């Protein structure tokens, strides 16, 4: 795409000045910001930052939730040829030190007092960070640190500079080139130190337009932006595609009001990682368990029908007249109200990405009439590598290569990708760049998979994670974990077994779902740790695991990786404790090392094990959580012989 993000902004402002570009919910009321008003805000911010000394090629950190001013600051930086670097707003201060040092950051945007405090805390370690602009002034009235300024003061200074130099913004935008660096995203650091992924305007906009063409997106779409802007998935859907298509991006009031805001906006284009869809389904199941017996029976009956015929109807396949009539009644009584309750009544296309989604979870949403599809990509590929065409949607694949993408497999089964959306480089890391990209332009994804007879890509697991049990059976931990996480009572699972005699798992219960389950059975508990170790909860989790084992027994390739032993962890896995990445991916190696006594107990046949773990609380304090964890065996089944 022969353009840049700021040029697209000015183009929308010229062609559709009064049309809504963004909406933000403040004090319960949706406020619209037109393309013309957004362009004026960007001009003032750019002129203010130019006056403050932000230069072409320099990096600027942004930490906060999706807000018009954050997006406008990104555009203002890009207009000056500077490079925005969004960071996760829930990251601890220490996690921000490396990106700020690595990118030589002098300027930062902080949404509120929490983010300002975080940056001020690490400023002694990052003396080059001299200027911090904050958006929300609440709690900051008495702060007197040098270099700390409000966005309002920046806008005022920029407005004066723009009035004195009316040609400044157009001149700066004209200097921009599609091959200039547009943004840098730091990887989640699943296996080590995070890396800065460098993308140009061309790479990001090419993939944004490829995705838009694939799903025929227009300026009429409505999107709710609620995931962290630092995640490349959110950035592509609510920034790159927003500017490529010109649709409306809606910013929720807060994380706590997302579900309410989702229902009010009724997005037509929706994107979420599997964890969000798991959470939504868990909420539905909890509500149904509290419903009357008649409602539960009706729900179960119509859901059985939906799973049988819903995906076929969604894909335009032939379904008998009687089933069509029954499904229409179900849509009136169950599926329609359920879609409305989920805020998805108007969704034309929904995507999930970031990690594999369980097939049962995926089928549930398609069964109730939501056009949920999977896509495959990564930070390094600007998201869009493979997408699922309408009427060719399957739970076990991630679709076909989209425009201009080539895929091949190396001898080890690793997927290699060549695409116009590939990263330019890892910032200041030529060794990692050389390891990831071949001289002829192929990117090593690190994923293992294959293309099926219909040309659809099937992902097995991370190539480095696919292992073997001691008897030679394939061990794909992510596959096992995803099957377990379909159950509403299991929030997270960590599968272990590579080079060992059997597969075992450590489980996190879903506190809300299991708590609701316990209360309906008059089972008292004093908190997460107490509830997790109840014999009744262990029996519940064992039932889930044994259902997974029964499924695995029917797969001749995976029957050997049935789960033999398990335990329920005494605490929830947490990114603040290093157990998850900021995108909520399990850091399996770190967990195996941290919980080594539990690992040894699982494989030595012990019935229980004492563990003491350091945790970090929300206020930054550290403490210890200890418990004696039960370890239980799960039933396994002999492998079913494939039909001749």
3D architecture notes:
With 644 residues, this protein is of the alpha/beta class. It has 3 domains: 201 residues, Rossmann fold (3-Layer(aba) Sandwich); 98 residues, no CATH class; 167 residues, GMP Synthetase, Chain A, domain 3, CATH 3.30.300.30. It contains 21 helices and 28 strands. The protein has a 5-stranded parallel β-sheet with strand order 4-3-5-6-7, with helices on both faces. A 5-stranded mixed β-sheet has the order 12-13-14-15-16, with helices on both faces. Helix 4 packs across helix 5. It starts with a helix and ends in an 11-residue tail after the last strand.
Poorly predicted residue ranges? none
Query: Spatial order of the strands in the main sheet?
Result: 4-3-5-6-7
Intertermini distance: 52 Å
Structural class: alpha/beta
Tell me the strand percentage band. Answer: 15-25%
Shape: globular
Text of the CATH class of the largest domain: Alpha Beta
Radius of gyration: 25 Å
Number of helices: 21
Q: What is the mean pLDDT? A: 92
The main β sheet shows up as: 5 strands, parallel
């Amino acid at each position: 795409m022969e353009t840049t993000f700021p040029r697209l902004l000015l183009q929308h402002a010229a062609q559709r000045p009064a049309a809504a570009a963004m909406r933000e919910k403040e004090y319960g009321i949706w406020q619209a910001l037109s393309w013309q008003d957004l362009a004026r805000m960007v001009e003032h911010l750019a002129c203010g930052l130019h006056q403050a000394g932000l230069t072409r090629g320099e990096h600027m950190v942004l930490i906060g939730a999706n807000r018009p001013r954050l997006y406008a600051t990104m555009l203002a930086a890009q207009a000056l040829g500077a490079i925005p670097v969004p960071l996760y707003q829930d990251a601890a201060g220490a996690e921000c030190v490396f990106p700020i040092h690595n990118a030589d950051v002098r300027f930062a945007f902080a949404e509120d007092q929490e983010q300002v405090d975080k940056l001020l805390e690490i400023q002694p370690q990052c003396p080059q960070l001299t200027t911090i602009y904050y958006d929300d002034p609440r709690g900051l009235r008495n702060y007197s640190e040098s270099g700390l300024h409000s966005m309002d003061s920046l806008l005022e200074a920029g407005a004066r500079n723009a009035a004195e130099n009316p040609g400044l913004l157009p001149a700066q935008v004209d200097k921009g080139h599609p091959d200039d660096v547009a943004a840098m995203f730091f990887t989640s650091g699943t296996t080590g130190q995070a890396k800065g992924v460098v993308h140009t305007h061309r790479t990001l906009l090419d993939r944004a337009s490829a995705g838009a063409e694939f799903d025929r997106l227009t300026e009429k779409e409505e999107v709710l932006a609620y995931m962290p802007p630092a995640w490349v998935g959110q950035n592509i859907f609510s920034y790159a595609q927003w500017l490529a298509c010109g649709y409306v991006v809606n910013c929720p009031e807060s994380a706590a009001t997302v579900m309410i805001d989702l229902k009010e906006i009724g997005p037509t284009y929706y994107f979420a990682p599997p964890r969000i869809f798991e959470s939504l389904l868990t909420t539905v199941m909890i509500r149904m368990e509290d419903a009357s017996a008649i409602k539960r029976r009706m729900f179960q009956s119509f859901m059985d029908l939906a799973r049988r015929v819903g995906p076929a109807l969604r894909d335009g396949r032939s379904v008998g007249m009687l089933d069509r009539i029954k499904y229409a009644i179900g849509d009136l009584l169950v599926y329609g109200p359920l879609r409305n309750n989920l805020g998805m009544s108007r969704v034309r296309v929904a995507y999930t990405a970031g990690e594999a989604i369980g097939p049962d979870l995926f089928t549930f949403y398609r069964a109730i009439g939501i056009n949920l599809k999977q896509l495959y990509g990564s930070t390094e590929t600007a998201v869009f590598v493979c997408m699922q065409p309408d009427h060719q949607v399957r739970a076990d694949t991630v679709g076909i290569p989209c425009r201009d993408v080539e895929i091949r497999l190396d001898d080890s089964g690793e997927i290699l990708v060549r695409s116009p959306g590939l990263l330019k480089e890892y910032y200041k890391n030529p060794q990692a760049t050389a390891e990831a990209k071949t001289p002829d332009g192929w990117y090593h994804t690190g994923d293992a998979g294959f293309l099926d007879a219909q040309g659809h890509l099937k992902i097995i697991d991370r190539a480095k994670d696919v292992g073997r049990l001691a008897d030679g059976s394939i061990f794909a931990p992510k596959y096992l974990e995803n099957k377990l996480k379909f159950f509403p009572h299991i929030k997270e699972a960590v599968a272990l077994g590579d080079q060992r005699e059997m597969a075992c798992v450590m489980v996190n219960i879903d506190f809300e779902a299991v708590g609701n389950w316990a209360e309906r059975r008059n089972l008292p508990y004093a908190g997460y740790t107490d509830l997790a170790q109840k014999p009744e909860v262990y029996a519940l989790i064992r039932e889930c695991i044994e259902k997974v084992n029964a499924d695995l027994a029917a797969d001749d390739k995976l029957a050997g990786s049935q789960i033999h032993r398990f335990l329920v962890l005494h605490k929830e896995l947490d990114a603040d404790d290093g157990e998850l990445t900021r995108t909520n991916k399990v850091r399996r190696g770190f967990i195996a090392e941290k919980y080594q006594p539990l690992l040894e107990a699982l494989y030595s046949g012990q019935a229980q094990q004492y563990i003491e773990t350091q945790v970090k609380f929300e206020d930054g304090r550290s403490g210890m959580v200890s418990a004696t964890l039960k370890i239980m065996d799960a039933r396994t089944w002999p492998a079913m012989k494939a039909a001749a």
